[in-house]
Amino acid sequence: QLQLVESGGGLVQPGGSLRLSCAASGFTLDYYAVGWFRQVPGKEREGVSCFSRSGGRLNYADSVKGRFTISRDNAKNTVYLQMNSLEPEDTAVYYCAATTSTWCSSTRMGYWGKGTLVTVSS
Fold first, then answer.
1. pLDDT digit string, tens, across residues 55-94
2. Hey, which residues does 4 pair with through a beta bridge?
3. Residue 87, CB-side half-sphere exposure with 13 Å CA sphere
4. Are 48 and 61 in contact (CB under 8 A)?
5. Separation between Cα atoms, residue 120 and residue 38, nearest integer Å
């Protein structure tokens, strides 16, 4: 069974940090483009960061550049999202997703996790 499971969400104060994890089972992330997306109720899902399938390229949404870092541990078949200097605007459900395409796109991701809630509030 192919599965992505996110963890690491929670409540954090503005300026704080969280690290999200996305563990894959049933397939090897090495052969997929893997990304993080987020969604606020009533708004469209937003791409946050992506690793290309080759692992050679990555990108970030302008809103998180300089604050978030995506990384992967192939031995653990896990992708991470380190989030620093969190702002209330970062509050959302964060999803991990994977695709056999070269690059991430919210319309082409074949596998999605169930999401983990991040709340930034004082």
1. 778 889 999 999 999 999 989 999 999 999 999 999 999 9
2. 24
3. 8
4. yes
5. 14
